[in-house]
Amino acid sequence: MPDREKELEWIIQYHAHLYYCLYTSELSDYEYDCYFDELRELNPNNTIFSRVGQGICKELHKNAD
Questions:
Q1: What domain range is 43 assigned to?
Q2: Tell me, what's the pLDDT at 51?
Q3: Is there a contact between 1 and 10 (Cβ–Cβ < 8 Å)?
Q4: At 51, phi and psi to the nearest 5?
Q5: Residues 20, 64: Cα–Cα separation, whole Å
Q6: What are the pLDDT digits (tens) for 3-60?
Q7: What is the pTM of this model?
Q8: Is 64 a residue whose pLDDT tops 60?
Q9: Which residues are CB-neighbours of 52 under 8 A, at least 6 positions away?
Q10: What is the pLDDT of residue 17?
Q11: Torsion of CA 47, 54, 28, 25, to 10 degrees
């Protein structure tokens, strides 16, 4: 996996955790969407795109271990 793809995954997971689990944010929705769109261009099949709805906090905590 290319470095930029890994970096984008980390950024997206970090900010998703802040938003969905801690109810805060450091990015605007637009900035988050830009990272998301860039990752989708690099790898449209990335597993990050299959995460939805409830359980996202549990999944993010599991991936942090």
A1: 3-64
A2: 78
A3: no
A4: -80, 125
A5: 15
A6: 999 999 999 999 998 998 899 999 999 999 999 999 999 999 999 888 765 567 776 6
A7: 0.79
A8: no
A9: none
A10: 87
A11: -110
Contacts of 60 (CB under 8 A, 6+ apart): 13, 16, 17, 20, 21
| Integer angstrom CA distances of residue 46 from 11, 17, 25, 41, 59 | 14, 18, 23, 10, 15
CATH code, domain with 44: 1.10.287
Tell me the Cα Rg of the chain: 11
Two structure tokens written together for 11: 């950024």
HEC per residue, 1-65: CCHHHHHHHHHHHHHHHHHHHCCCCCCCHHHHHHHHHHHHHHCCCCHHHHCCCCCHHHHHHHHHC
Q: At which residue do the structure tokens 């830009």 appear? A: 34
pLDDT of residue 20: 86
- Give how many domains the chain has, as a whole number: 1
